[in-house]
Design goal:
Layout (H helix, E strand, L loop, with lengths): L5 H35 L7 H36 L3 H17 L2 H21 L1
Helix pairs in contact: 1-2, 3-4
Length: about 130
């Protein structure tokens, strides 16, 4: 399986987003249930220690939700940046082609130019 195919990358992206969203919604449900139990019901924690641990659990769940939402945002940005050829890679490719031209390896130079052209064309078509 070629994991560099755009279809596999797209599936990987959606899988990451799906897992983060499911985790976030589950935590939102749990925090809502804990808050409702703490505030609105009389059957909540009776002693002070249980109340403190219950609130601490709610705060930890809220913090985890925030972290998961930031992970969704950063995953989206990561995959957007991953599509494009970085400046460093482009410079390395040009330096390699320049070295091939100085060495007189014109067949290899033509192959590397063709592969760079194909790569750029594929990244333009997939974005």
């Amino acid at each position: 399986i070629d994991f560099e195919k755009p279809s596999h990358k797209k599936h990987e992206f959606y899988l990451h987003i799906f897992v983060y969203l499911i985790s976030s919604t589950a935590l939102v449900f749990l925090i809502a249930a804990m808050t409702r139990m703490l505030i609105f019901t009389q059957a909540g924690p009776t002693d002070a220690a249980s109340s403190v641990f219950f609130r601490l659990n709610a705060y930890v769940a809220a913090f985890t939700i925030i972290v998961l939402l930031l992970a969704i945002k950063s995953t989206s940005e990561f995959y957007k940046r991953k599509k494009a050829l970085t400046d460093n890679e482009l410079l390395q490719s040009i330096e390699y082609m320049e070295k091939l031209a100085h060495d007189g390896s014109y067949e290899e130079l033509a192959e590397s130019l063709k592969s760079l052209k194909d790569y750029i064309a594929n990244s333009v078509n997939n974005s």
